[in-house]
Design brief:
Layout (H helix, E strand, L loop, with lengths): L1 H19 L6 E5 L6 H8 L8 E5 L3 H9 L5 E5 H9 L4 E10 L3 E5 L13 E4 L3 H14 L7 E4 L5 H6 L5 E5 L2 H7 L3 E5 L8 E7 H6 L1 H20 L1 H12 L3 H8 L2 E2 L3 H8 L5 H15 L16 H9 L1
Parallel strand pairs: 1-2, 1-3, 6-7, 6-8
Antiparallel strand pairs: 3-10, 4-10, 4-11, 5-8, 5-9
């Protein structure tokens, strides 16, 4: 009888334990059509990240993805540094846990064939998405050409409507990024300016809510591990990787390969160098970007970019190797 009582007690303990165990919700990660974030989808395709742990949420524009992160509908999102600075100023405490790429030609200004130089944009209609990075690229280009924003006609155009605006003759030039640069060039446009002329200034990253990172560090590490594994697969098996990734972007494998040549995808070691402390090379880029944003009224007051950098998830991965 005592034996049966002990067995019953053990079974009851197991049932109570199972009932009280809370299964974690998947980490909701916002993404857009951008070659630099495609290794995330490659990681899912190859089984490096688990759908039960990571849920990739696809958006047509970065503005919509950022809005949902701001409203608490996303736990993490791929953004540019300017957006991360704005989120920090708004008190959302984003934590930069991964630098996915540096743009080295993937952000560009394209124009009609008759416009051969940046100076030719004077008086022309230029489509610009309502994002700081697009305004920044345009501002830096105009600065190099000795022009002011008042010298052109800015037409606010979401990125998913830019090709239509160009083809219908509504605009003369477009500030955009891949894969839309290629699509516009296929429609007859040509490049006037790109981010190769802004080395180290256009950075894409993964930001996570501070509270989510503190509560679920293992899920964040799982996502980063998957991204890094996919990056390695891309290096070692480029043909298969391009074939897997290109359909989502609506490009051919060779076109995607050309786009990725315009990006530098940092390694784990590169990331650790960039995310560790005030000596990070990212800080200088952030301060230059912040000066521009303050001047243009895109930030109300300075923030401390070093407070956003968090190398702990990647350090944990490095230690587990």
């Amino acid at each position: 009888m005592r034996k049966l009582t002990r067995v019953f007690g053990l079974l009851l303990l197991l049932v109570v334990s199972a009932c009280t165990h809370e299964e974690k919700e998947p980490l909701r990660v916002g993404t857009i059509l951008w070659p630099g974030s495609e290794p995330t989808f490659l990681a899912r395709d190859l089984g490096y990240i688990d759908d039960g742990s990571i849920r990739l949420v696809e958006y047509t524009t970065l503005g919509r993805a950022t809005r949902d992160f701001r409203n608490g509908m996303l736990d993490a999102v791929f953004v540019t540094f300017d957006i991360a600075l704005q989120l920090q100023q708004q008190g959302l405490e984003p934590r930069v846990v991964l630098i996915i790429d540096y743009s080295q030609g993937a952000d560009a200004i394209v124009a009609r064939p008759g416009l051969r130089r940046l100076e030719d944009l004077r008086g022309k209609r230029v489509a610009v998405e309502d994002l700081v990075v697009s305004i920044y690229v345009l501002g830096r280009a105009l600065e190099q050409a000795g022009l002011q924003p008042s010298d052109i006609q800015i037409v606010r155009t979401p990125v998913d409507q830019q090709l239509r605006a160009y083809e219908s003759g509504q605009v003369d030039a477009v500030v955009t990024y891949e894969p839309f640069v290629d699509k516009l060039c296929a429609a007859g446009a040509h490049q006037l300016f790109d981010s190769r002329q802004l080395p180290g200034e256009i950075v894409d990253m993964l930001v996570v809510r501070k509270d989510v990172l503190e509560k679920n560090p293992e899920q964040v590490q799982h996502l980063l591990q998957g991204w890094l594994q996919a990056r390695r697969y891309l290096e070692e098996h480029p043909a298969d990787a391009m074939a897997r990734m290109s359909p989502r972007l609506g490009t051919s494998p060779s076109e995607l390969a050309s786009m990725l040549e315009k990006l530098r995808l940092p390694t784990l070691e590169d990331n650790l160098d960039m995310l560790r402390g005030p000596s990070s090379p990212l800080i200088a880029s952030a301060r230059q970007l912040q000066r521009f944003m303050l001047k243009e009224g895109l930030l109300r007051k300075p923030v401390q970019p070093e407070q956003m950098l968090d190398a702990r998830p990647l350090e944990a991965l490095q230690e587990s190797r």
